[in-house]
Structure formats: C-alpha cells, structure tokens
Amino acid sequence: MASAPPSLSRYAAVSRVLVRVLVLNLAVALAKIAFGYASGAISVLSDGFHSLTDAASNVVGLVGVRAASQPPDADHPYGHRKYETVAAAAVTVFLLLVVVEVLRNAFNHLTGRAEAHEITLASFAVMLVTIAVNLVVIAYESRAAERLGSEVLMADAMQTRGDVWSSMTVIAALAGARSGLPILDPLGALVVAGFIGHAGYQIARATTGILSDRIVISDVDLERVVMSVEGVLGCHHIRTRGAADHVFLDLHVWLPPSMPLTEAHDLSHVVKDKLMARYPQIADAIIHIEPPPNGARGAGG
C-alpha cells in the first residue's frame, strides 16, 4: 500500500524546527562576524560568514517546505517543489560573494595591507561557545529529522557538522597565531573559504541535477521491484526525475497480450503501489501497459 502524502501538520512541524534553528544560526553567525570585525581576527570573521551560509540554508529549507505544502494547480500539475531547487541555486550566488569577501580579507592580511591584530582569549571563548551552540543544533535537528522523516532537516544537520569542523580549524589557527605565528590566522581564513566553496559546489551539483532531470533512483532497483509482481513479464523505459525526497516515475510494463484490460489495469496499480511502498519518496508513478515485444517472456528491457 502506498504511503500517504505528508500532512500539513508535518510541514508545520518541520517549519518550526527550521525557524528555531535559523534563530540560533543567525546568533552564531552575528557573534562571530561582530567579534571578527572588532578584534581583527580574520579567521573568526571568515567563519562567521560560513555560519551565515547555514542561516541561508535554513531560509531555503523554509521556502522549500512552504512550496512543498502547496498542492498542484492548473498551472503546476506536478506541484511546486522545484521552487525549493531554484531557491537553493540562488544560495550558490550568495556563497560565491562570501568566498570573494573571505579571500579579499585573507589576501590583505597575507600581503600586509591590513594590520595584524593580537589574538586574545576572548577569541577562543567566542569560538567555543558557538561550537557548543552548533552541537546543540545538530542534536536537535537530527532527532527532529528522524521523528518527522525529513530529509531537509537531516541535510541541514549534516551541513552544520561541517560548520563545527570549520570552527575547529579556526581555533587551531588562532592557537598558532597566539603562539607567535600570526600568518596562521589568514591561512585559517583560506581553509574556511575552501569549506564554503565546497558547500557551494555541493549545492550547485545537487540543484543542477534536479533542474536537468537527472536520474534519481537506479533503473535496476526499480526493475527488481516491478519484476517481483506476479503476472508482469518485463519492463523498460524507466525514468525518474525530481529531488531525492520527491520523485516522479514513469515506466512501461509488459503484460500478457491476452489479459483483459480491466485485469491489466488492476495489475498496473499493484505495480504502482508496490513501488511507492518500497520507495516512499516517489510522489507519483505513471505505469504504461503494453504487450512484450516479439513474444518476450520474463525479461526486463
């Protein structure tokens, strides 16, 4: 039996989690950015911009959840899910601007255009507190993601884990700078720029795959499910598209030419239900019925 579509209450619950996490991520980002500008610690400032990307991801998640909760209409028969993808693609532009700003500041410090500042114990305190907040966010989002079955929340929690590693890099750079190697501060900023650039690359790769209708579920895996239905002789022309947690599928199944149309129709629904039960992320599946080519029996195409 196919799983029921997510209820509006679930979307509301996911949105509430994202809003709470957004507030925490903004607090972390603003604390780092404000302290970075005030102290001149370029690695802390860069990590603040990195944390700001987490807040941007929360906004994208909110937009996606809001769009996903809207039912299909006359102009959007497949729903509004790709608005989430478009919003995510827009984040890559924001990340590019952040990388440019981080690299500019790091370059100015490496070339002596900006004066090196003393690294104080307050720098470590700010970083340790923000790491603690991020660990709370990770635990909270991971539990909520498991409870609500939300890939958006789980993905966001994984991204925040990257922010923790970035902050650990900054602490190491600050420790080196305080020990008499001030060049480690801007070098740490360059490492953070690498983290941000990698995040942007991952988002760009994921969004372009969705927008270009890249395959989502393996044809072989889907064929295995189809062929487990008694009476099906084969299948071919399997196509999937969409986001990882919101997939559209269509395929052709081969049924005996002598099978009455009503029976063939009922069997196609058995195939559809079994596919959607095995892969709950399938939002809709279209099954085309046809006789096997050249009298083929029991082979996939």
What would you note in describing this structure?
With 301 residues, this protein is mainly α. The protein has two domains: 8-211, Alpha-lytic protease prodomain-like (Up-down Bundle); 219-295, Cation efflux protein, cytoplasmic domain (Alpha-Beta Plaits). Helix content is 66%, strand content 9%. It contains eight helices and three strands, in the order αααααααββαβ. The chain has helices spanning 8-39, 42-68, 82-110, 121-148, 151-178, 184-211, 219-227, 261-278, and strands spanning 234-243, 246-254, 282-290. A hairpin with a 2-residue loop joins strand 1 (234-243) and strand 2 (246-254). The longest helix is centred in the first third of the chain and has 32 residues, at 8-39. Residues 1-5 have low confidence and may be disordered.
Biggest sheet overview: 3 strands, mixed
Uncertain segments are 1-5
String of helices and strands: HHHHHHHEEHE
Strand order of the largest sheet: 1-2-3
Q: How many strand elements?
A: 3
Remind me, CATH topology of the largest domain?
Alpha-lytic protease prodomain-like
CATH architecture classification name of the largest domain: Up-down Bundle
CATH superfamily of the largest domain, by name, is Cation efflux protein transmembrane domain
Q: What percent of residues are in strands?
A: 5-15%
| Structural class designation | mainly alpha
Q: Helical proportion? A: 55-70%
Q: What is the terminal-to-terminal distance? A: 26 Å
Radius of gyration: 25 Å
Overall geometry comes to: elongated
- What is the CATH class designation of the largest domain? Mainly Alpha
Q: If helices are DSSP runs of H or I spanning 4 or more residues, what is the number of helices? A: 8
